[in-house]
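REQUEST ID: PR-0412
SUBMITTED BY: lab tech R.K.
PRIORITY: routine
TASK: structure prediction, single protein chain
INPUT:
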Amino acid sequence: MDLSRLIVYYLDSLSGDWSKYPSMKKTVDAAIIKFRLKKKYRNRKDITWIRVQCPQQNNSVDCGFFVMRFMRDIIALNRIDIPKMYFEEYKSYSRAHLD
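STATUS: complete
OUTPUT:
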């Protein structure tokens, strides 16, 4: 999330769509608005959700790894913006990464 620019980056290793989970989006949007009100930010523009094309898991058990790996990649690359096509350096994960 980029709270100053009202951007939520959505990474889903199971190819989900945030619009299938309206309660999740509503909760995240409400939390961002509450945070900004508390900090007295004046910008009232809409929250932008960006779905990032990211490496995909091929089973239903590796999701924890993918979440941790996405966080590690974002921090390790020290990027403020997340590209819509994820990071060129990490287009996919090898079996060695997963093991």
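NOTES: Residues 21 and 95 are 30 Å apart (CA to CA).
REVIEWED BY: pending
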